[in-house]
């Protein structure tokens, strides 16, 4: 369909609608403008979905500081040797060429909500009628005393994918038999609840595959329990007996400090020395969301569960890890799902397209060992106060091997589909 | 216990179900014609394509683009009533009503696989 006829249609029916349904923004001059801040799981999806569904009626700009995006999802499979780095890294070419999205590869410095524009680090301005914010998380470095951005060169977090992921892999591959890896797990809420434990599994797999069964992975956790705990515990016992140890706060008594120089983690119980120490600190919404005044005291962004619209600004939507998404975990699947609800609401605001009740979904697969994959998932709807789980499932202990293998092949399909859904 | 047959009969008893969907549910029906609301289906479909790729697939999740509505409805109903195994699909269909299933069937049938 020609953009012109499409726009005319929008203008005519919009004029009728304007009196009935606010807020219908129809620009007399030019197309309505949507800016998406952050080209990850949430932002890529939102930009593509809005551009695709509006078929030229909306002008879409995607702001992303990096030219290429390495997915945190499947980065544990890269650590385990199941994927290469290129296969988890994606560019923005298709979003630009296939969907007419204007991709701005630069850092946004601020959101000027009064003037409705994003201010770029170089001072240039990108005006919007609607803004979708999906900056992911930032790490709270000092949530672990002794840890810092500089310390992450010695004790990688690898909780944002890229150079950190490669560093962790290089360090993992250098661990010798008899040595110990120490992981400091994060407190809730954080991106990918099963992620640390899938990572510990992949570390143990790499060690075991080299015959380093005298090496081990020690997890020091600030949480008394964790996602899919029974499934991981069963898997570790089965595949890596004696190689993975998990200590909750009732055992270690509290994580006191890390020391990058000596490679140690001190707890109330003891000091743990690691040939590799992986520190995953506490997390909050990406800095730009906080500086734009979109966060609350929790460090994350309150949203309307019907639309992902920010509670602080009706022209702004927040999706993905930065949002407070009720019962939904912080995952790429969730971010992708939320972005679709936001895309529908944005189009409803700016054109005459229909708006339906919000529905969300999530499934998280975790690989414990080759062909032994477990999953957890749920469907969600908007309740009055939050995004609420409507039905859920989780893998069970003692499941047959063929089911676990099927889960793994399913996860491969999912990765292929979701990355096409995000990046085109 | 509800079987797919029971559900389909139940469906036939619901006056609100679009006539064309009923035709689709009968194996003797003619060429596929969309019955549900394809615009609603398009919105709902966004949650399907996170896993179901439109092209060839490396893993085990089957493509669903271009499926005839009858096959599509049958498949979803058989997950919904527990005849067919798959934790994700049973969970997904548990929250889909007839309106949603027919809308999805109409939308996916309107696309051609690439
Ligand atoms: C080890 C690990 C494993 C995981 N496994 C899974 C999994 O199996 N399944 C799953 O569903 N999820 C998984 N996740 C979680 C998933 O990666 C995140 O939940 C998801 O990436 C969130 O998407 P987002 O859009 O909120 O943020 P992100 O994907 O982080 O995207 C944010 C983007 O915004 C950009 N940005 C931020 N600020 C600015 C700025 N000021 N200017 C310009 N650009 C900016 C960033 O560069 C980034 O590209 C995993 C995470 C980890 C760490």
From TrEMBL, chain A:
GO MF annotation list: flavin adenine dinucleotide binding; oxidoreductase activity
Lineage: Bacteria, Pseudomonadati, Pseudomonadota, Alphaproteobacteria, Rhodospirillales
Coiled-coil parts of chain: none
Organism: Thalassobaculum fulvum
Record's keyword annotation contains Nucleotidyltransferase: no
Domain FAD/NAD(P)-binding: residue ranges: 33-147
Stretches assigned to the Sulfide dehydrogenase [flavocytochrome c] flavoprotein chain central domain: 165-281
Protein name: Cytochrome c
UniProt keyword Flavoprotein, yes or no: yes
SUPFAM superfamilies: FAD/NAD(P)-binding domain, FAD/NAD-linked reductases, dimerisation (C-terminal) domain
From TrEMBL, chain B:
Domain Cytochrome c: 31-112
Domain of life assignment: Bacteria
GO molecular function: electron transfer activity; heme binding; metal ion binding
Signal peptide coordinates: 1-28
Annotated keywords: Heme, Iron, Metal-binding, Signal
Full protein name: Cytochrome c domain-containing protein
Species per Swiss-Prot/TrEMBL record: Thalassobaculum fulvum
């Amino acid at each position: 369909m020609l953009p012109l006829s499409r726009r005319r249609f929008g203008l005519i029916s919009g004029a009728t609608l304007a009196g009935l349904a606010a807020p219908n923004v129809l620009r007399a001059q030019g197309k309505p403008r949507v800016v998406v801040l952050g080209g990850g799981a949430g932002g890529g999806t939102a930009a593509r979905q809005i551009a695709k569904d509006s078929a030229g009626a909306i002008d879409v700009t995607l702001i992303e500081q990096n030219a290429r995006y390495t997915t945190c999802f499947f980065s544990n499979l890269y650590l385990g040797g199941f994927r290469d780095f290129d296969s988890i890294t994606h560019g923005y070419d298709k979003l630009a060429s296939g969907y007419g999205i204007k991709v701005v590869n630069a850092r946004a410095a601020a959101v000027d909500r009064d003037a409705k524009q994003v201010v770029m680090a170089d001072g240039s301005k990108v005006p919007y009628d609607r803004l979708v914010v999906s900056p992911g998380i930032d790490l709270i470095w000092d949530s672990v005393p002794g840890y810092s951005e500089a310390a992450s060169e010695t004790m990688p977090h690898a909780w944002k994918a890229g150079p950190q992921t490669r560093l962790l892999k290089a360090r993992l591959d250098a661990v010798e038999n008899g040595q110990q890896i120490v992981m400091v797990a994060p407190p809730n809420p954080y991106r990918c609840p099963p992620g640390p434990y899938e990572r510990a599994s992949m570390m143990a797999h790499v060690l075991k595959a080299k015959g380093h069964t005298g090496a081990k992975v020690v997890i020091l956790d600030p949480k008394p329990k964790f996602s899919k705990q029974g499934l991981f515990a069963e898997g570790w016992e089965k595949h890596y007996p004696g190689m993975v140890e998990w200590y909750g706060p009732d055992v270690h008594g509290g994580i006191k400090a890390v020391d990058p120089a000596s490679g140690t983690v001190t707890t109330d119980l003891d000091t743990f020395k690691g040939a590799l120490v992986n520190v995953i600190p506490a997390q909050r919404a990406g800095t730009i969301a906080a500086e734009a005044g979109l966060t609350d005291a929790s460090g994350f962004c309150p949203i309307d569960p019907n639309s992902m619209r920010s509670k602080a600004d009706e022209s702004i939507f927040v999706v993905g890890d930065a949002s407070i998404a009720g019962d939904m975990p912080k995952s790429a699947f969730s971010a992708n799902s939320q972005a679709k609800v936001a895309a529908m609401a944005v189009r409803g605001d700016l054109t005459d397209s229909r708006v339906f009740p919000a529905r969300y979904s999530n499934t998280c697969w975790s690989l414990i060992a080759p062909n032994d994959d477990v999953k957890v998932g749920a469907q969600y709807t908007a309740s009055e106060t939050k995004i609420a789980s409507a039905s859920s499932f989780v893998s069970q202990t003692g499941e047959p091997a063929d089911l676990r293998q099927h889960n793994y092949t399913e996860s491969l399909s999912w990765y292929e589909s979701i990355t096409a859904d995000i990046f085109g | 216990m509800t079987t797919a047959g029971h559900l389909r009969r139940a469906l036939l008893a619901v006056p609100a179900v679009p006539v064309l969907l009923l035709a689709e549910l009968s194996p003797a029906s003619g060429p596929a014609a969309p019955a549900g609301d394809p615009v609603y289906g398009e919105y709902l479909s966004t949650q399907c394509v996170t896993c179901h790729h439109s092209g060839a697939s490396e893993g085990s999740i089957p493509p669903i683009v271009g499926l005839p509505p009858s096959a599509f409805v049958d498949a979803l109903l058989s997950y919904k009533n527990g005849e067919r195994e798959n934790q994700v699909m049973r969970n997904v269909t548990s929250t889909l009503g007839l309106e949603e299933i027919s809308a999805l069937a109409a939308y996916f049938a309107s696309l051609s696989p690439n």
